[in-house]
Structures are given as structure tokens and as C-alpha cells.
Amino acid sequence: MKLVFKKVLVYTLVILSALLWTACNHLEWRGSAIPKLVWSKSDRISIKDIQSERSINSVPYQNKLLSSTPYWTQFRGPNSEGQYNQEILVDWPEGGPKLVWKKLIGSGHSSFSIANGSLFTIEQQDEEEVVVAFSTRNGKLIWKYPYNAKFEEYFGGIGPRSTPTWSNDKIYSLGAEGDLKCLNSLTGKLLWELNANETNNTEIPYWGVSYSPIVYKDLLILCPGGENNNAIMALNKDNGELIWSKHNGKQVYSTPIIFNFHNTDHLIIALEGKIISINPENGDLYWSHNWKITMNNNNISQPTKLSKDQMLISAGYGTGAEALAIIKDGDKYNTKTLWKSKRLKTKFSSPIYKNGFIYGLNENRLVCIDSIDGSLKWTGNKYGYGQIISASDHLLILGDSGDLSLVKMNPEKFIEKANYKALKGGRTWNYPALSGGFLFLRNSHEIVCYDLRPSKLNNKDIH
To answer: pLDDT, tens digit, for every residue of 94-130?
Structure first.
């Protein structure tokens, strides 16, 4: 009888423990096929806590310049290539570089644009998407622009995905349901708005509208998709007037980018199943290249320029990378595949090119590839499904759990110089941003600012 009682007691304790474990833990998708068990969901930050903090810290706008000229003004910085071309501190103290400030923020995978002492991003607060401007000096709220919109799906969670673009004191913000807002970057006042997906009667992609708008001269480029010669649109960036719309195809997740080939600007855009190059002035087609991605056929990673007439495209889901030569024949252009490789299967991140070598995450592991033939130079550590930018011949890798790593860009061998926890918990898919030597990071919990200025500047005030 005692033995039976003990068995019942043990089974009861096991069942209760399992129920308690399930109640206190959650499964969260971080990028791999196997979800991660976490204590709390990444996008469950208390809106009350955020609003309480900001009501205390809100200040009138003060134009304290972080740098003399706006520099990191769009997704992945200058020309969206993820490269910071000024000097930073690369010999970090134990425990990481100096933390300048940190603040709470709402859900979303947006990154930052930075200009004139302001840090711009998009967050989710309850049933509203909110475009926000923070002071680069101390993280205090300068202004916010909320509107009714909420996007959520199982794998990526809640909130906006796109990064705002700054140009001439205007912010162009694109929400996860396609809501484009043009705002005054000094005050947050709405200047004009548009939902191109509604205009074109096109569906929101499964993981939400994720591409960022880009500015080319006086044009704002959008790629909402469409089947009536309207998949790509160019608007007057000052008033939103349609200048041209062309091409057909479904919207994907990567951001349009401008590359100069053969002394001509090419607007490179991915649509479902293909990469195309067009004249940004009028939308005329230069070339089209088939680009089919295993599983969902929707491009995420950014193209990477390799030389004056070569570029790289890459994707995850078993697809890998492909190097293309852009060939000019009279007034026409064609593409030629130079090599393909399964050694670089980028999923959410985009590769970095430098001096003949390509650095990127092959799924979740860092690799270095020779750009001439696609051969593997080395395989480094696993960093999860995070994001990469470069500065001072080093890679800054923000892992999907908020860990920040510093890796030397050395094609001969893998050298990790630092690794530490930079963000508090939570899924981290947001791209880092650098301006004036300051590194800005965020996830769906918080924003942090780290001082990466060289030692000779490190003790000076941020403005």
C-alpha cells in the first residue's frame, strides 16, 4: 500500500512540475527550425512601464549634434551596406565598452536612423504603432507619433519590422501593415501619408512589411508589389505625389538598394522569384535575374556589392549565395553567374564585403568566403540568427539573444576579441546602428547606447 502511495505521489509531483514548467515557460522562435524555451516572451514588455519612464524623462527638443553631418540615416547605414567608415574603439575593456544610457522600448524588429542628435525608430504600444525620436545624448523622448495598427504572427511576434529613413529633416516610416508616414523629423508633425499596399490592392507578406523606404535624389522608392505595372513606385519625397510606377511581382522582405555599375546608378530590388535592376530616374528595366529561394521564395538578405561590376545575392533555407557579374553590351545589361556556394546561407542577416572577402552568417555560424571563387576561408563561432555591421576592420555581431561580439576581419583565421551581454534578454533581430562613434542597439525590451569612440575621444561629452 505504501509503495502504491509513493508511486502516486511521485507521478503527481511529476505532473505538477510539468504543468508549472509549462506555465512559467514559453516557446519562442529565434530563427532555427527548433524553437527556444524562454521564461517570458520577448514582446511582452509593460507599456505602463514605458509610458511611466517617458513621462518623467520627456524634454523639449534640443538640437545637440552627435556629429556634424547626418551619417547613419537609413537601414544599415550609408547606402544600406552595413559599413561604418570612421574609427571606433576595438580594444574593449573587460565587460565591454562604456554604457552611456539605456531605456525601455516597445516591441518590434526595427533598427535606427540617426540625424542631428536624434535617434528614430518604430515600436509597438498596445494597439498602436508609434514612430519615436529619442535624444542620442541621453535617450530621452523628443517626440512620438502614434497611429492605430498592430501586426502579429507566430514566428516573428508583435510589432513593426521596417526602419525609418531620414532625409532633409523628414522621416519616412513604414509600418508592418504598409502604413507610410512622412513626418517632420524635428517635431514629429505628419506631413503626408500613404498605404501603397492598399493603393495596389496587394497582400501584406506573411512576416509583415519589412523593407525600408529609400531616398534617391528627390524620389522616395517603395516596393509594395503589384500586377498592374505598379510593383515598384517612386514618389515625390516632399509631397508623396506619384512620379512613376512599373513592373510586376510580389513584395518580399529586403530593402531596395542603389549600386553603381559601369558608371550608372542601378536600383536593385528583389521581387518574388527574381532580382531586378532598374533605372531609378524612370523605372526602366536594366536587367532581371531569376532568384528562387527554397521554401518561401521571399528574399530577406540585402545584396552586397563586390566590385565595380560584380554583386552577391544570398539567402537561407538551403539556398546559399550566388555571385553575379553585371555585363554591359551597348545600351543593354546582362548578368552572368560567376559562382554559387552553399557555404553562405544567410537567413535574416546580410553579408559584409571587404578587400576581396565576404563575411556573413551561414545560418547561425560566422564564415569568411573568398569573393573570387566562393571558397571557404574559415568557419567561426555560432552567434544565433543575429545581425552584423563592420567598423575599423572589425565585425560587430549582435546575436539573437542580445550578445555583442567583436571579431577581427582577418581572412586568414577567425579571431574573436570580445563577447558580452549587451541587451537584456529577449529575441534580438534588430540591426545595430553607429554614428559619431556611438553604438545604438535595441530589441523588444530596451534601447542601449555604448561609447565606441577611440580612446582619445572616449572621455569627452557626447555632444
So the answer is: 989 999 999 999 999 999 999 999 999 999 999 999 9
Quote the cell numbers at residue 420. 558580452
Q: What is the distance between the alpha carbons of residues 122 and 129, in angstroms, rounded to a whole number?
A: 7
What per-residue confidence (pLDDT) applies to 357?
A: 98
Counting other chains too, the contacts that 378-381 makes at CB distance below 8 Å and 24 or more residues apart are 378/411, 378/412, 378/413, 378/414, 379/414, 380/407, 380/414, 380/416, 381/405, 381/414, 381/416
Whole-angstrom Cα distance, residue 161 to residue 173?
11
Q: Among 105-114, 179-188, 417-426, whose mean pLDDT is lowest?
A: 417-426
For 199, phi then psi, to 5°, come to -60, -40
